[in-house]
User: What shape does this take?
Amino acid sequence: MNKYKTLTPGVKLYIGQDSEVSQRIYINRGILPATESIYHEDIKYLPNAFKPLPDWYEACTEDLDLLLTDSPDIPYSECVCLFKIPEKAIKIFRESGLSECNSHETVLERLKADKTRLQWLDKWLGEFATLLRHEGIEKGKARIHGFFSGRANVETVAYDSDKQYFGLHIDNSQGNTIYNTDKAPNRICINIGKEDRFLLFVNKTVRDIYNLLVEKNVIRANDKIPEGKLCRLFFENYPDYPVIKIRQKPYEAYMAPTDNLIHDGSTSGTMNPDVTVVLLGYFGILNVHNNGEIAGVTAL
Ligand SMILES: [Fe+2]
Assistant: This one.
């Protein structure tokens, strides 16, 4: 029985039919201010940053009932989806040696040195992105955002150009205001590293967060709040609202509306570089469901 503050309805998680996945969904008791990493002396956080409390427990039935959806026909801006990429792509990624690369530069060097494999990956990623693209959205051109390599064993992975860590945050990929984040692109992030990594998120859309803050008289309706301030106000006023953590195994991908929810990645407990490839676009959960077979995608 869950004795802590529980989840309330909000952003859903679609994982298909595999009950094994529900055993790698964790929940905690909220956040704490982040100034530095507990694992690395040189990692510093930006002012007003927050990270999840490390008191993770396995999600109970009540949490899962609230979080999981078995309906793929759900707006992409309100749902996170986890799925496995096709075997043919796994084989190419395995052979590429990219999982060994411990910096962005070495990833690029490795890709440049292996033109045939790079061309195959470029083509495949383009087709993959197109198949999973939401058909109803004209501007929904999907693109490869890039290959990334990050550090092992960090509590949260995202940092700015000065290598200062954001902590849990909301992306702003195209100059959104808080009124249109439900129309912003979402992303697919594929784990091509050797080890499991984690997706962290709060199951509330930007609109939900805004309404929670209005309810508590922290802000007034129609106040214009940048996404960074919205995130800080949420954590200051709801510090014990649970964060969700999902284990993402190698060659699994998550699809998430990262402009519309508080999130980050995590590599806590790992020893190898965190290597990922990221696609940006307007991807549909229904497309994973319907086109999964064509794309070779397996809903977990
Ligand atoms: Fe992000």
